[in-house]
Amino acid sequence: MRRTRLVVVLVGLVLAGCSGPGPSAGSSSGLPPAPEGQRLAGVCPETVVVQQNWEPEAEYAGVYALVGPGYTVDADRKRVSGPLVVGGRDTGVRIEIRAGGAAIGFGAISAQMYLDRSITLGMIGTDGAIKSSAGQPVTAVISQMAKSPQIIMWDPASHPDWRTIADIGRSDATVVVQKDALYAQLLVERGLLRADQIDQGHTGSAVRFVADPTIAEQGYATAEPYVFQHEVPSWGKPVRYQLLSDVGFSIYPDALSVRTGDLPALAPCLRRLVPVLQRAQVDYMAAPGPVNRLIADLVTRYADGWSYSIGVADYATRVMREQGIVANDASGPLGGMDPSRVQATIDTFAPVVARSGGRPKPGLTAADIATNQFLDPSIRLP
């Protein structure tokens, strides 16, 4: 799913992005080796390549937590690479994390994965996997977020009586969303909004909301509420919102996925790598500071107009825990994907995709697009 997010161009960040590359990587990380069960050398690719669907941000921190010291930054291609570590120990392979969005022409991650076979894992939501299931099938192996942080937000001063998205639907207010947003079609089909309220002109800029606070607009619980209050001087006050996950947007967002045909060959790697990803997310939630600083530093170095401050990152971490965006799944472990929920999402969104001109795989099932077989069921958030 293509992500559109508020862009606040901060001159200081853009100038800071002109600094030199990150520390040079040597032939060895100099770190102690990981325990045998977490050693990835010989079973995983020498470099595990992860393709994000957007710019660096805290929602992806469970992957960035794997980047060890001595990492290098390719600011031109928007990539960071270094030893893949867990718990401060070297797993014996490297990790490369590639930014999405503008860095890949805003293309779909499934398409990017089939175009570039060097990608090991791509971040694809359940809705995206449904869309690509016929021609470019992918299978999610872990979802480091339990639910989507996407929201519809509004100005509480302009609409003091609104508490939910359904309240918006009982008004004549415009709701600004990104083009072809499946969740907007879902909201209309469920009678929460009317089709004539939907405006697909969302650009990621704060200008329209500030200029006309009577509208409602898409956003992310992990960013816009903080950014509008603390980083948009022309606004500088709270917004109110409801999570789309509260009204039926049941996707697992940004789930780490492989090309379905590659699943058997990657299975030996995934049996060790997926628990490492689980552990990295637990470690991040316990001590987010270093990873949040890495993410903010990468945004600065990439210097492509996207801005992301430490303040936003720290806020995002807190919201992800408080609102259950990062949480143990109903299926049991952190990172799990409840098959009944995945199937219900297919049942909901496959018809929506088809009505939008897409062609999901006929008879698509949860097992086609998600598996829990590589998860360690004992790894959970405390």
UniProtKB/TrEMBL annotation:
Signal peptide: 1-24
Gene3D superfamilies (UniProt xref): Periplasmic binding protein-like II
UniProt KW keywords: Signal
UniProt-recorded name of the protein: Nitrate ABC transporter substrate-binding protein
